[in-house]
Each structure stands twice: as structure tokens, then as C-alpha cells.
Amino acid sequence: MKGKGNAQKVKAFFKKNIYYIVMIVCILAIAAMITVAVVLGGEETAPTPTPTPTPGDVTDQNPPDDSDAVNPGDDDTNTPVDGTPEPIVFIVPVEGATVIKDYAMDSLVWSATLKQYSVHPGIDFQGAEGAVALAAYEGVVTEVTYDQLNGNVVKIDHGDGLVTIYSSLEEPVVTEGQTVEQGAELGVIGTTATKEMSDGNHLHFEVSLNGEICNPYDYLSIGDK
Ligand SMILES: [Zn+2]
Question: What is the 3-class SS of the chain, one letter each residue?
């Protein structure tokens, strides 16, 4: 009787709590599935737990790795230009000058002296009476010469194949071998270059790189390129 009563009680209990029981069974089933999935997942992707430490590893690696990786790169790019870490910027080689003839190697410009169109490998700077040619950049005077076409000419070597040439000077005041600072006076500008004598008092200014004439505007901070 007792047992029967118990059985009935159990039956009644199950009947009464069937939803809870089903829910518990379901939860257990889901929990079991999750456990299996985690275990299997853990086995398949064994390093999965490592992602947690990975951020630490990454941040640990990054500062030394990045600085080591980036800085040598910077050093590498700097190394070839160690002598000239800063870009070379010329000053206008005649104070208060006016450009009366621009650099023109790809086109022809009229030459009042030669009465013909020709290329112009430099810039002509016109200055006031007594205006002085100035070293566009620091360097060493390598040539002080005279010839009828170009007049008195001063050449300054700035290193790395870069040379500035100052033509049509009245009387150079520097000598070969002299080291000059940027802005050093080279001599009064004039009309000694007979090939440009009709252009009046001016400095004919040229720039060459590794022996090739190049555009002075590549180095001057003024004007159009
Ligand atoms: Zn000229």
C-alpha cells in the first residue's frame, strides 16, 4: 500500500512538474552538447585558448618589433643621404631681383642679343645698379673664369654633384678653393656676358647636377617649376 501510494505520489509529482522536468532534461541536454562542443572545439583548434594570451603577446612583441623594424627602415632611407639630411633650398642669388628671363630648356625664348630664339639653361636675375650676386647655398668655389660669351663666371660646388654657376659678373670677389656660406657675396652683377649683353645688368644663374644642367626652380624656393 505504502509503495503503491509512493508510486502514485511519484506519478503525481511527475505529472505536476512535467514541464520542469522537461526543461531540466533539455537544459542538461544543451549543457551536454555545449560541453561536447567545447571539448571537441578545444581539440580541433587546440590553440583556441591561446587567443586570450595572444593580445598580451602581440602588445609585448609590438613595441620592440615595431621600433626595431621601423627604425632600421628609417635609418636605411637616411643612410644614403646622411650628408644632406635636409632638403637643399637655394636663396635667390640677387637680393631684390627681378627675373627677366626664365629657365627654358624645353622651349625657345627670344634672345635680344642673339636676335634669335634659343633655349635658356638658367635664370636671368636683374638687380639694381651695383647689385651683388650671392651664393645660393654653402659650398666651395671651384672655378672663377672669364670668357667673352659668359663674362666673369663663378662656379660653386655644393657636394653630391650639385653645382651653381653665376655668369655675367662685373668682378668676382671670391677665389678658387674658397669656402662660402649661403648668401656670401660673389661680385657685382653686370653685362660682361656678351651673349646676353642686351639684357642689361643681370646675373645669369645656372644649376647643374652631376654635370647636367637642371632646373634652378628645383632648388629655389620661389617661382614656377
Ligand atoms: Zn641668361
Answer: CHHHHHHHHHHHHHHHCHHHHHHHHHHHHHHHHHHHHHHHHHHHCCCCCCCCHHHHHHHHHHHHHHHHHHHHHHHHHHHHHCCCCCCCCECCCECCCEEEECCEEEEEEEECCCCEEEEECCEEEECCCCCEEECCCCEEEEEEEEECCCEEEEEEECCCCEEEEEEEEEEECCCCCCEECCCCEEEEEECCCHHHHHHCCEEEEEEEECCEEECHHHCECCCCC
CA of 211 to the centre of ligand 1 (A): 18
Distance 123 CA to ligand 1 centre (A): 6
Encode pLDDT of 121-175 as tens digits. 999 999 988 999 999 999 999 999 999 999 999 999 999 999 999 999 999 999 9
What is 98-218's CATH number? 2.70.70.10
Neighbours of ion ligand 1 (CB under 5 A): 124, 196, 204
Separation of CA 124 and ligand 1 centre (Å): 5
Query: What residue spans define the domains of the chain?
Result: 2-80, 98-218
